[in-house]
Amino acid sequence: MASTQATIETSLEAVSTQDLYREMLTRIGEDPTRDGLLRTPERMEKSMAFLTRGYTMNVTDVLHDALFDVDYDEMVIVKDIEFFSMCEHHLLPFFGKAHIAYVPNGKVIGLSKIPRLVDVFARRLQVQERLTTQVGEAITEAINPQGVAVILEAQHLCMMMRGVEKQHSSTVTSAMLGVFKTQLQTRNEFLSLVRRQGSSF
């Protein structure tokens, strides 16, 4: 098994990424030498690198200069954070909005860093459930707050363009950590604030 994997890896190293995309175009019945497709493998390579750039990002680098000691212990919410990701099952996009809250424990995160944190995990091959959990756990590890809440609302092209083909379906996932899990009042306050202005859940 190990030798087979090594052989595959060696074979792939000898083939460029653009060659692989060119082969894919051929296998779906296209002619990669026709005018409209001549540069498509190059574009696909750049596009995929951009869409999966989360693999080259990490939480420490994103947050390192934006963690502040603050005497504040009320809820902080950043809502309606647009995100785009790629379904790991079909390599089709899913996209939507993230709503994130935390109750500080002596330390806060610079507000602009929270959307960047979402991108660290969204710009990878993902499932929505794991993405939701990863964002919550990353904030917990970074500032050890009293609690973190994450809600993601998303539409999945793998459900809209193929399969059941339901164009108006959406998926909502949540992760409630710390006081958001143990204190009903705190969780309800978060849900009430996020639901304003017409969130779908």
Automatic annotation (TrEMBL):
SUPFAM superfamilies from the UniProt entry:
Tetrahydrobiopterin biosynthesis enzymes-like (SSF55620)
The residues forming the signal peptide are: none
Q: List the InterPro entries hit by this protein, alphabetically.
A: GTP-CH-I_C/QueF, GTP-CH-I_N, GTP_CycHdrlase_I, GTP_CycHdrlase_I_CS, GTP_CycHdrlase_I_dom
Keyword Cytoplasm part of the UniProt annotation? no
> What positions does the domain GTP cyclohydrolase I occupy?
20-194
Identify which top EC class this enzyme belongs to.
Answer: hydrolase
Q: In which pathway does it act?
A: Cofactor biosynthesis; 7,8-dihydroneopterin triphosphate biosynthesis; 7,8-dihydroneopterin triphosphate from GTP: step 1/1
Keywords linked to the UniProt accession: GTP-binding, Hydrolase, Metal-binding, Nucleotide-binding, One-carbon metabolism, Zinc
GO terms (molecular function) for this protein are: GTP binding; GTP cyclohydrolase I activity; zinc ion binding
Similarity comment = Belongs to the GTP cyclohydrolase I family.
HAMAP family registered for this protein in UniProt: FolE
Name-wise, this protein is: GTP cyclohydrolase 1
